[in-house]
Specification:
single chain; mainly alpha; Glycoprotein, Type 4 Pilin; three-stranded antiparallel β-sheet; 41% helix; elongated
Amino acid sequence: MRFSEEEGTKARRHGGTKARKSRVSSPACLRASVPSCLSSRGFTLIEVMIVVVIVGLMAGVVVYSTAHYLDRAKRQRARADIATYAGGVDAFYLEKGRYPDNQEGLKVLVPQFIKLLQNDPWGRGYQYVQPGKRGPFDIVSYGADGREGGSGADADVTNADVEPAKAK
């Protein structure tokens, strides 16, 4: 049996022969009132909710397990900043023959000894005290809580915590 050219074009356009019909293209499935057509149309609300809950739980586990890395990174940045500022204070001493006083603070180091004076990782300025408790000066960041003392993320970071570079 031969197809006419018009029937062959229709068959090619609709993906096969006239006898093959998809369930979704029937008028009953387009209205989505027939239960057999509902399962092939998409996800149910329950399935979507279950996936959202699982993704939320996984995100919570990741955040909980990586939170301490952020605290550690902030403390490392404070140590690096303090080491830079302590080097600037030492260079100031070598050039001027004295340490900056408390009124001058770390601001006197910019731009001759250090490029930029930044806040600590918690958004507060570094404190400069001369004379210091453990040496000729102290440079202090009071940690996450902004108060003296503390432990963990709230612990103070000072220039006494930073090891000087060892000469080879």
